[in-house]
Design brief:
With about 1000 residues, this protein is α+β, with helices and mostly antiparallel strands. It is built from twelve helices and 50 strands.
Length: about 1000
């Protein structure tokens, strides 16, 4: 009977276990898989909601959060740190030496840990043990040099065990070097920070073998890179019951999406080996990152988390640390433990000092042993008034207005300095800091940053009710210089007498842009509207600010304008060192130049070194706008050296702005061009048109269409390619056509060791028949290619170009791009012009197989010429049939475009650079008829400098910059007649030289 009972109980136990397993599996989240492409990740400009699941569901219970935790760990490790090995089978310790601590307050034990039996590793630790008996609380710190923590006596006095572990024993922290841990576990893709965090976990493995450790009271901490490690370790291992990152910045407690002025961004990291390379894709695409650092902080809940920061340590992004702590707070509140999420600020340098350690000890004693400090509120400091749209925070920061002697502001004429030397060279990109400073025109910039007086007068003009929040309440505190009195609709603004001429701060980028609009509009009075603040230099809708109006009379400085005004010497005699930023080292290379506090720049700018950052127009990704400083030191970084940026809605005590006043460009401001050696290059009695030029393998190549039956679509057309070594003597090297199609508009592309010639082809049908079909969907792209300009491929159909009329080609970063025109949804319709035609960006990895990337123009798509800037930004000129052309620009991935009307027609457009100036070419309508014209493109405006001999059917120029101020241009035209007086259409060329 007993055996039957046992058998039944066994079956019941197996059934229950199976049921429990089934229920558990059903309730777990699906296994997370990364998307096929990062481009598929959604854009999240603000901090993502940590309490939202993968399917968009809201997480409202502790149980739901616990199921979500493991998925979040996978996501964070995959993108940022690399995946780590599991816990090894054993960790043992061997005592190397034991000595009294020099303070006399305990012992100092040096121990060698042996980690794992299958893939053995060794790591040294030092245990500082107080004289107390029993189970002791522990603080663990990674340390590059064991024995280096000066504050050990503080913890021994409090009865804490303090441990340092030698992080370099597992990873030496050197670029390109894999440490012992990565060598032993080479099947894991972990990088340095993950190795160090894993090492901290192994210390706990060892502590679990000891009898003198309180395993419920173990903390981990670190400073700077060590702080990044501490937060990661605490997020991954719940055995750490206290986590204290100090000054940890990017990849630590700071945010990638919320950057204070001078903060390290994702792309600024000069220690790529700390992180997995997958994180680098998100440089200037931070909005695509599926997490931010508040996810790591949330993973610590409901355990203790204390982030210690300095408000002066701008590179470590103290504003971003507040943002992520606030965003993670919801998870601590979910557990009912909001006081376990600590945030502590002090002043001072980037360091781990006594104040930080005392705060950590007090926080631990408060929560571990019920010993609250005298002022526990200091463990939740939120000194920054961050915009709600960046991070949701239900608490408000109290604002105390300082009532000081004040007066009504009077209008002041802003004092400007003129920045000349148009067309100067850029800086040298020393130490990889970026190339800035070249400006092709003269301009004026405010001698000083806009003052409290100047801004207060602006507020009185347009801020009676202030619907757009031009006034920040902190301007009225001790940190600001402007007081507001009265009620909405009757607001009056006064300037503090002691701060009247100091720079205004607490100004967001869009507020500064509104000030520029107000100047552009002539300082009008009235409500904030398109006539006062919302249009002019910029079109503003909420916090969205357009690019600069090409006709702006005032604006914020561009990054190049600011950089030139501050650093360029403007001294023609100084041939070698043009910028006051770098000085040569004796043994080669450069050092950053030091400037005094009262530094006045070569052009006469003042207040450059006053520790107030200045907005500039640079767009950085989808989230940020540019900030620049003078040359002061903060922490261990000279702030002028890097390209910094911040969230445009941030209003902080250290951000102000300058304005630029633009001069009307005249002929004397633009370089003169000598046109020489105008020559007819080719005429064979046929219609010759649509030119392109390229330099390939030290020879010049010219391509064009030739057709005996004229300009119209004919199957008798072919593409002719000529070659020259000196641009004078030309000889044919190849000619091709496509049966039953008109080959038109050839364009060169040098790509992956081959010279391609692309042509858009119209379908005609058999020669001698009448063409009746005009459907754009019958267009196809073709090409020929050669590696040596001797052996040519046959005409090859380009896969992916069905229904596209292809045009200009270009390359960037190993990818080829084409312009193609097509009908909406490939609708059947005549020809290929009009509102329902799109101008498409096609891309290819091999030059033969193409796919859609995006659209240059959504409507009225037409011939589009385009170039790439160094950061991948496209700038282009788009023809609009017979209407005015457009200037087009977009950053990768080319989904969001800015388009500006150029106010004149351009046929067969060209856009290219000649030196550091932009040139636009094409057919221009003049009182004398259509002409082929080259124009300088400066500040969004066109300024003709050459009208080439041309008339009738003409234009479609090719262009090569030959260097040293010389260039060559090709075009076609019908302005000449042959010996019989018959008009001919021929190919021409001219030499250009800057005077």
């Amino acid at each position: 009977m007993s055996s039957l009972k046992s058998y039944i109980l066994s079956l019941l136990f197996i059934f229950l276990c199976s049921s429990i397993t089934t229920l558990s599996t059903a309730s777990e989240e699906k296994v997370w898989q990364p998307p096929a492409s990062n481009e598929d990740l959604p854009s999240i400009p603000n901090l993502p909601d940590v309490l939202m699941g993968e399917a968009g569901e809201s997480i409202r219970t502790q149980e739901a959060w616990e199921k979500r935790r493991n998925t979040l760990k996978e996501i964070i490790l995959y993108y940022q740190y690399g995946r780590i090995p599991p816990r090894p089978d054993q960790v043992t310790g061997t005592l190397i030496k034991s000595v009294p601590h020099k303070s006399g307050k305990g012992t100092e034990d040096w121990i060698l840990l042996k980690i794992g039996s299958q893939r053995p590793l060794e790591m040294r630790i030092v245990i500082y043990r107080p004289k107390n008996e029993g189970k002791l609380p522990v603080i663990i710190r990674e340390e590059g040099h064991l024995g280096g923590t000066r504050q050990v006596p503080m913890f021994l006095d409090a009865g804490f065990m303090f441990i340092e572990y030698a992080r370099h024993d597992l990873d030496p922290d050197r670029k390109g070097v894999k440490g012992p841990a990565q060598q032993k576990y080479s099947d894991y893709d972990w990088e340095t920070l993950a190795v160090w965090a894993w090492g901290g976990m192994r210390v706990i493995d060892y502590l679990e073998t000891r009898q003198d450790v309180d395993l419920k009271r173990i903390g981990i901490t670190g400073h700077s890179r060590g702080g990044k490690m501490a937060l990661l370790a605490g997020a991954l291992d719940e055995r750490f019951t206290l986590v204290v990152p100090n000054g940890s910045g990017a990849g630590g407690a700071g945010s990638y999406r919320v950057l204070g002025p001078g903060a390290e961004s994702l792309g600024m990291n000069d220690k790529p080996h700390w992180y997995h390379e997958r994180i680098q894709w998100f440089d200037e695409k931070e909005d695509r990152l599926p997490f931010d650092q508040h996810f790591l902080k949330a993973l610590v809940a409901p355990r203790l988390l204390l982030c210690t920061e300095s408000v002066d340590d701008e590179f470590a992004n103290p504003e971003g640390t507040q943002a992520t702590s606030v965003a993670a707070h919801r998870v601590f509140e979910l557990y009912g433990v909001p006081k376990k999420n600590g945030l502590y600020y002090r002043g001072g340098k980037h360091a781990s000092n006594d104040e930080d350690w005392k705060a950590q000890l007090d926080f631990a004693q408060w929560h571990w042993f019920g010993k609250p400090p005298p002022n526990p509120e200091r463990f939740w400091k939120t000194p920054y008034d961050l915009p709600r749209e960046l991070v949701s925070d239900s608490r408000s920061i109290p604002i105390k207005t300082a009532l000081e002697a004040h007066s009504s502001p009077q209008d002041q004429a802003i004092e400007f300095v003129r920045v000349g030397d148009a067309g100067n060279s850029p800086d040298r990109n020393n130490e990889g800091r970026g190339v800035f400073g070249d400006v092709t025109y003269c301009f004026n910039i405010s001698k000083r940053q806009i003052t409290n007086t100047e801004y207060a007068f602006f507020l009185n003009a347009v801020g009676k009710s202030d619907p757009n929040g031009l006034y920040n309440l902190r301007m009225g505190t001790n940190q600001g210089g402007i007081l507001r009195m009265g009620d909405s609709g009757e607001y009056q603004y006064y300037v503090k007498n002691t701060k009247a001429q100091l720079p205004v701060t607490f100004v967001a980028f869009h507020d500064a842009a509104r000030y520029a609009n107000w100047l552009h509009n002539g300082k009008p009075q009235g409500e904030q509207s398109s006539a006062t603040t919302e249009d002019g230099a910029y079109k503003i809708q909420g916090t969205q600010v357009s690019s600069r109006n090409v006709h702006a009379r005032y604006s914020l400085p561009s990054e190049n304008e600011w950089y030139k005004a501050v650093y360029f010497l403007g001294d023609p005699s100084n041939k070698k060192y043009k910028y006051q930023l770098f000085v040569p080292r004796l043994l080669g290379g450069y050092n950053l130049m030091s400037h005094p506090k009262n530094w006045v720049t070569a052009y006469g700018l003042e207040n450059v070194n006053n520790n107030v950052w200045v907005w500039n127009e640079a767009r950085v990704g989808k989230i940020f706008r540019g900030l620049r400083s003078g040359a002061w030191f903060l922490g261990n970084n000279r702030q002028s050296a890097g390209r910094f940026f911040s969230n445009p809605t941030l209003e902080l005590s250290k951000i102000g702005f300058r304005v630029v006043r633009h001069e009307k460009l005249s002929a004397k401001d633009l370089p003169k061009v000598k046109v020489a050696n105008i020559r007819r290059v080719f005429h064979n009695g046929e219609h010759n048109a649509f030119t392109d030029l390229i330099l390939y393998q030290n020879n010049y190549y010219l391509a064009f269409r030739s057709c005996p039956d004229g300009h119209g679509v004919q199957p008798t057309a072919s593409i002719i390619i000529l070659k020259s070594a000196d641009l004078k003597s030309w000889s044919p090297v190849h000619q091709f056509s496509v049966p039953e199609r008109d080959t038109r508009d050839p364009h060169f592309l040098s790509f992956k060791g081959k010279l391609f010639v692309y042509t858009g082809t119209w379908y005609y049908g058999k020669p001698g028949t009448k063409r009746t079909r005009f459907d754009l969907n019958e267009h196809l792209g073709y090409c020929v290619w050669t590696p040596d300009a001797k052996n040519w491929s046959p005409p090859t159909l380009l896969e992916g170009t069905f229904g596209h009329y292809i045009w200009k080609a270009n390359t960037f970063n190993g990818t080829a791009y084409l312009c193609g025109r097509r009908k909406f949804s490939f609708r059947v319709g005549p020809k290929g012009e009009g509102v329902d035609v799109k101008s498409v960006i096609l891309e290819s990895e091999d030059g033969l197989i193409w796919k859609k990337r995006g659209f240059f123009q959504d409507t009225h798509g037409d011939e589009t010429a385009f170039q790439f800037l160094p950061d991948g930004t496209i700038v282009g000129i788009g023809r609009r049939a017979r209407s005015a052309a457009e200037f087009l620009t977009a950053k990768p991935p080319y989904r969001e475009w800015e388009r500006r009307d150029l106010k004149e027609y351009i046929g067969g457009p060209l856009i290219t650079q000649w030196g550091n100036r932009w040139v636009v070419g094409g057919r221009k309508n003049t009182p004398r008829g259509p002409k082929t014209v080259l124009q300088w493109f400066v500040r969004g405006e066109l300024h003709p400098f050459v009208e080439l001999p041309s008339a009738g059917d003409n234009s479609y120029p090719g262009f090569i910059d030959l260097g040293e101020g010389k260039a060559v241009v090709s075009w076609y035209s019908s302005h000449e007649k042959d010996a019989q007086g018959k008009r001919i259409t021929a190919i021409y060329m001219a030499d250009l030289e800057l005077k």
